[in-house]
Design goal:
Chain lengths: 581, 306
């Protein structure tokens, strides 16, 4: 008995540059009480698919060209607007990717929570609506719901806001919940909590779920059925265990392989392109399997291991503290301190990678910035190549900026949208007065090639690139001055797993070629473990555990480290089998 | 909040002091004085007596300190031009007229501007968008000294609905308010459209739609508050500009407002009058901007905690 049956759905976007076939003839069905996972990378059409069902595709430019979506005997795709509105939020509810922007910042949580009730059950009394909202908040694990319901969204953390979103979606007891990348914007630890919560609620309320994500690991935690989407088509679908045990399509195989795993010892990550061959024939993409993927990936692992002299430190940090003042009055002194970084010490041997891992707000980003003197340390000492550089001002830091660089998290906002790629990449060289204009252009071309981009991209602007390409550009910018030390601050956190694998491989390859030293900052222990030689686990401004990467993972001492390890999505077939039993 | 208001008012004092000082010395640097007329006063004795009467014979620095001393107690001194009248009196008499004109104008501006902007934002790049936006563009481009006479031509000379000038009865308010408010209506329309379009593309609007909210509900409950933020930011300077009187409109319609006194005083080198009106306007602008900031904080919960 299927609840929602979608057949031959086609949603195209008619843009100035031609027709984009966002969703190209897909069919799937959702059974009662089941979780259907739809996996695919950005742009694969998975969000457009569910937006089509809900009537949320902006038209124009979007247009649903063909297909049916039968829910309770009615075709959602040609239903009139008032019928769709009556279903939306009542029988089919949705939660979205970014809890920071998906709640209205101007309205109290209470008002937003009861809104679906007010819309769909107009006769309900305000008091009853509020008490149902409080009940729902308690169900999604928000303490002190009675009081906190009257807060505004900005008073809640990201994870809490996503809980509010879930409560808001489930308050009308819908039959279907559509979750569009609900954990992608969250730290792995928070992601684990939200996934656990969704699983509990799904059992409890017997709601059917369509769960959209780019991460197969997340699917393994939750789904019964899986559909893998690529270029607007479902390339493979089936039972979750079958997909993980015997993936058929090369894209699925690539997606499964490219996720860094705690237990794996890969030196180079497999990528989708190791498995999948794409050929464009008369405007149609033909996908086929590249032979010999397994051997090739094995061969990739035979990279020469780097020689690291454990006593030659490029960076020494001693008892570093960064405290921020909060709410300083005009006459009164500082009223309170936020101890972002509170007395941490570590050393980084030349040519190695130190992984800094922890949740949002643990001080890992501030640490990176304090080392580069982008924020002023309160106390402590930073030595670079044996020279103390603590608290240097801009002028004193200038010669060091050539050697110390940083790559930021968000490649969308860390490139100036009004500079071409050539301008962005040659600017650091211009600042340091390196070479003539022609020299700099030649350098930019070779930098682009080094990060795997083509030289004809020179005159383009950032918006013409995908997220992965932009991050490559940011890496190239960091390399422009030929530094020996780079801080990668959550450099892959905003990326799909398939793109993440490529950028991680690039960073490792560059490290080998240029004998770079990295501080690699991330909230995801599996990524840090892949990159780093040594790991430091940070919590509330302090390092709670540090040591050799393999060792920290294999024998964690601190409780918190164990939590981080447990938060990494489990996607082993044994786990799925035990969950499904 | 009270703390913020207190400190902002405290900060206004040095701002006003700097404005007063700069204006004072710039006025004295401009050639000519209050008693240099087209028909000069022939008898030097009389001129000397006049200057002595108003304290203009003292050294510049002692004039400056006299002025500051009086300013502290709120005395702006006697007008040079209107004999036997204090600047305070002139302002108290003329300001309510200007303020009333300004208030009518801002009401016209808000009513026309908000409606046009909202209509335009509902269906961008359609006829409903282009028509009000073209009108707004024309409104911005046509200066008041053209708009005023056109309105007089149509509504008082041809249709004879309103008086061409004066400030005596209710109907005398209509044409000046339309002339002055029209320009601001155009700006507000454009700001409203931009603000609303920006908000309508936010994720939380999609959330509201996913809840099954009707378009009207989405617009009024979820979009309006955020969409009007740019308009509110603009209101501070706009209201200050409007209620401090418009010289052009007050001249066209023969309205006895403050704007005319301001400009006339500058032409006549009526030192005290210029100082008085400048400081009064400055204080008004500071106050209105403060009011707008308070309003923005009150409307935006994210700003409220800090």
């Amino acid at each position: 008995m299927s609840y929602l049956k979608v057949e031959n759905l086609k949603t195209y976007f008619h843009t100035r540059n031609g027709v984009v076939k966002a969703v190209d003839d897909i069919s799937f069905s959702l059974k009662k009480g089941e979780v259907l996972g739809i996996v695919g990378e950005s742009g694969s059409g998975k969000s457009v698919t569910v937006h089509s069902l809900m009537g949320l595709v902006p038209q124009p430019p979007g247009k649903i060209e063909a297909g049916t979506a039968i829910f309770d005997g009615k075709n959602l795709l040609d239903a009139d607007k008032s019928l769709l509105r009556a279903l939306r939020g009542k029988r089919i509810a949705m939660i979205f990717q970014d809890p920071m922007t998906s709640l209205n910042p101007y309205l109290r949580i209470s008002e937003q929570l009861i809104e679906p009730l007010i819309i769909h059950e107009p006769e309900i009394a305000y008091k009853d609506a509020i008490s149902r909202a409080i009940e729902m908040l308690e169900k999604v694990g928000i303490d002190d719901a009675q009081k906190r319901i009257h807060s505004y969204p900005h008073e809640f953390s990201g994870g809490m806001r996503q809980r509010v979103m879930i409560a808001m979606a489930l308050i009308t007891e819908p039959e279907v919940l559509i979750a569009d990348e609900p954990t992608t914007a969250l730290d792995v630890t928070v992601q684990a909590q939200i996934l656990r919560l969704l699983k509990e609620l799904q059992d409890d309320l017997d709601v059917s779920v369509i769960f959209i994500t780019h991460d197969l690991g997340v699917i393994a935690e939750l789904a019964n059925q899986v559909g893998v989407m690529y270029r607007g088509k479902i390339v493979e679908q089936g039972e979750v265990l079958q997909i993980f045990e015997h993936p058929q399509h090369p894209y699925t195989k690539g997606l499964l392989a490219c996720r860094p795993r705690l237990e794996s010892t890969f030196k180079v990550l497999p990528t989708v392109s190791d498995y999948l061959e794409e050929n464009e024939v008369a405007g149609q993409f033909q996908l086929s399997e590249k032979p010999g993927a397994v051997d090739r990936i094995e061969a990739m692992q035979r990279v020469v291991s780097r020689e690291i002299d454990e006593s030659d430190f490029i960076l020494e940090v001693e008892n570093l503290k960064v405290h921020f003042t909060e709410r300083r009055g005009v006459f009164s002194g500082p009223e309170s301190w936020v101890k972002a970084v509170d007395g941490i010490s570590f050393t980084v041997p030349r040519g190695s990678t130190l992984g800094l891992v922890g949740e949002s707000g643990c001080g890992k980003t501030t640490t990176g910035r304090a080392i580069l003197n982008l924020v002023n340390p309160t106390s402590g000492m930073v030595k670079y190549n044996g020279e103390e550089i603590t608290g240097f001002d801009a002028a004193a830091m200038l010669p060091y900026r050539k050697q110390m660089q940083i790559v930021f998290q968000d490649p969308y906002s860390s490139l100036n949208p009004r500079l071409t790629i050539e301008q962005a990449l040659s600017e650091p060289m211009a600042v340091h007065q390196i070479g003539t204009k022609q020299d700099r252009r030649d350098r930019v071309v070779s930098l682009l090639e080094e990060v795997g981009l083509e030289s004809h991209f020179l005159r383009r602007y950032p918006h013409e690139f995908s997220g992965g390409q932009r991050q490559r550009i940011c890496v190239a910018r960091a390399l422009a001055l030929e530094p020996e030390f780079i801080v990668c601050d959550e450099a892959v956190s905003a990326m799909d797993v398939s793109v993440q694998a490529q950028v991680l491989n690039l960073l490792k390859e560059l490290q080998g070629k240029r004998s770079l030293t990295y501080i690699f900052i991330s909230h995801d222990l599996s990524v840090v473990k892949f990159m780093a030689d040594t790991i430091a686990v940070m919590r509330e401004g302090e390092i709670v555990e540090q040591g050799e990467a393999e060792n920290v993972y294999a024998n964690p001492i601190n409780e918190y480290t164990k939590n981080l390890i447990a938060a990494v999505p489990r996607d082993s077939t044994e786990f799925i089998r035990s969950r499904r039993a | 909040m009270w703390k913020l208001i207190f400190f902002r008012l405290l900060k206004a004092i040095p701002v006003l002091f700097v404005i007063a000082t700069i204006t004072f010395f710039m006025l004295r640097l401009t050639p000519g004085g209050p008693f240099d007329r087209e028909k000069p006063i022939k008898d030097p004795e009389i001129k000397k007596q006049l200057e002595a009467h108003y304290g203009l014979d003292k050294s510049l620095s002692s004039q400056y300190f006299d002025f500051l001393g009086k300013l502290v107690v709120g005395d702006l001194g006697p007008s040079f031009k209107h004999s036997n009248r204090q600047v305070n009196e002139v302002i108290i008499k003329a300001f309510p007229v200007s303020a009333e004109l300004g208030l009518w104008s801002i009401m016209v501006a808000l009513a026309l501007g908000l409606t046009a902007g909202m209509v335009a934002s509902v269906k961008p790049n359609s006829i409903l968008d282009y028509t009000p936006m073209t009108l707004a563009m024309i409104g911005i481009c046509v200066p008041t000294f053209v708009m005023g006479p056109i309105l007089i031509l149509i509504f008082s000379l041809k249709l004879e609905w309103f008086n061409a000038s004066g400030w005596d009865q209710w109907s005398d308010r209509v044409l000046p308010a339309l002339t002055l408010g029209g320009v601001y209506a155009a700006y507000i329309a454009r700001l409203t459209r931009g603000g609303m379009l920006e908000v309508m593309s936010q994720d939380y609007i999609r959330t509201a739609r996913a809840k099954g909210a009707s378009e009207v509900r989405v617009l009024l409950k979820h979009a309006l508050r955020g969409g009007l933020m740019p308009v509110i930011a603009f209101l501070g300077p706009a209201v200050a500009g409007l209620i401090s009187g418009s010289f052009v409109v007050e001249t066209i319609f023969q309205i006895p407002g403050l704007g005319r006194h301001f400009v006339e005083a500058a032409f006549n080198r009526d030192y005290t009058m210029v100082m008085g009106t400048v400081l009064f306007f400055a204080a008004l602008i500071i106050l209105l901007n403060l009011l707008v900031d308070v309003l923005q904080i009150w409307l935006n919960p994210r700003l409220r905690t800090t």
